[in-house]
Amino acid sequence: DATLIAADINNYLYASNGTPNQIPVISLFQDVDYEHKLFTRHAAQVLDGNNVETYEPRVLDIVLYNTVKSGTSLTTCQTYYSVPTEDLTAKWVSISGNDTTGTGTKALPYLTISKAQSVTASNVYLKTGTHGLGAVALTVSKNIIGLGYSIINNFGASNAMLISANNTRCENFIIDGTTTGNGGIRINTSVTGVVLNRIKMINPRIASAYVIRGNGSNTNTTIQNSIFNVNNTIYIEPNTGTYNVINCYFGETVNCVYPIVDVLINMDIKYNKINTTGRFIYSLYNVNEIRTTGNKGSCYYLMYSNDYYLFSSKNDVMSVVKLLRVSAPLVVGTCQIENSIITANSDEYILSIVEKNFLANNLHITQSGGGSVIEMNSATNSVVCNIENSLLRNTNKDGDWLCFGTLPGTTLNKVSGYIKKSKIIGPKEYGSSNHGLILWNTLNFEIAFNYFDGYPLPLVLKAPGADYSNVLVHHNLFLRGKVTIKGVDNSKIINNTFYDNYLYAAEFEPANLNLVVNYDVGTEHPINTIVRNNISVMMNADKSNINITTPDETYISSSNVYYSVGGDIITDGVNTYNLTEWQGLGNETNSVFTNPSFNNPNNNEFWLTTPITTGENLGSTYSEGLDASTDWGSDSELPVVVTKQQGASWDIGAYIH
Question: What pTM does this model have?
Answer without folding.
Answer: 0.85
